[in-house]
């Protein structure tokens, strides 16, 4: 059985869709999967059970990326095609069952919208498939027998970013309760991400630099060894939650009602003001610290 799975360009949305794939892997163990996604999310699927290939959709003018996808898929007879982008491309392919999710944003948790495409209730939680090399990479980078707290100071636009100068007083609150803990600073590839993370790396004592050049599954393995992830609403926040790591999301200019982290142990704090239009500067250190310490106190240390 061959399944075409068309998912998101952005990392966060792609992570949220992994629960659907996990459901299909479990219920259709002999299925072979072709996953189409954006370049940022492509590495997320490299260890997917039953994976045949990942088709990377580089956005092109006049929507020509959809034509490229059609050319890559038209010669295959698909038993099932699932399109989470709401496009028309699967109607132009030979396919048995077609599942097409309506495109665009709408109120409510994105995870629930995805689950409705397969009529699943409750929605399956996101997951990440790791291999031995991913776990070895994380083990080589991170010390053992030390509480590790991952911090994510970056995001894909400035309105989502909590002021970087607040991570030092936040760390002082956390370190007072967990004096042996070490911060793990996580960020994506590229100079812009590095520039956003640099002030936090520079000011936090004993900070471990875990950003910039690791694959998505290596980053997930790093998260899996941490006691907590605390950071902005971003793809990395969703990735941390998918690993089962206790995850605290920081929201202001984005809506927690749509994109709250989804995982076994998650929480979020929201800046005061209109939902989705509250400045992140309004989110004070004490509020974040209290939420982080509460999540730490109420969750067991995850196993690597």
Automatic annotation (TrEMBL):
Pfam families assigned to the protein according to its UniProt record, in alphabetical order: Glyco_transf_9 (PF01075)
A molecular function (GO) term: ADP-heptose-lipopolysaccharide heptosyltransferase activity
Keywords of the record: Glycosyltransferase, Transferase
CDD domains named among the record's database cross-references: GT9_LPS_heptosyltransferase
Annotated SUPFAM superfamilies: UDP-Glycosyltransferase/glycogen phosphorylase
Gene Ontology CC, one term: cytosol
Name this polypeptide is given: Heptosyltransferase
GO biological process: lipopolysaccharide core region biosynthetic process
Keyword Glycosyltransferase: yes
